[in-house]
Amino acid sequence: MSNLISRQALLKKLEEESGMNTPEWLVDAINEMPESLKGRWIPYINGRVYFICSECGSKYNLPYHFCPNCGTKMEVSNGSNT
Ligand SMILES: [Zn+2]
User: Fold this and answer.
1) How far is the CA of 59 from the centre of ligand 1 (A)?
2) Ligand 1 center to residue 33 CA distance, Å?
C-alpha cells in the first residue's frame, strides 16, 4: 500500500488535480481522518533478531519505515544500531 499520505499532501494533490479549491465538506472529511496509521516494530529474537509489525504481525529482518505488508507507518527511532 503506497496511498498513505498526509492530510496536507492530500489536499494539495486534490487542488492540483482538480484545478480548484477543495470543497469545504471534503476538507472537513479529510481533517477527521487519522493523520496516519502508526504502528511499531516489536523486536523478536529467535537465534537472530526480527521485527514484528504491531498491526499485522508480519516478520522482517529490518525495521522499515513502513510495513511492507500492511503499509502501517512505523515509529522508528533515530538512533541507528544495526
Ligand atoms: Zn504490518
Assistant:
1) 8
2) 20
Record the pTM: 0.49
pLDDT digits 0-9 by tens, 65-74: 889 998 888 8
Q: How far is the CA of 72 from the centre of ligand 1 (A)?
A: 6
What is the C-alpha separation between 13 and 44, in angstroms, rounded?
39
Domain ranges of the chain: 1-35, 37-82
Residues around the ion ligand 1 (C-beta < 5 A): 53, 55-56, 58, 67, 69-70, 72
65 and 76 Cβ atoms separated by less than 8 Å: yes
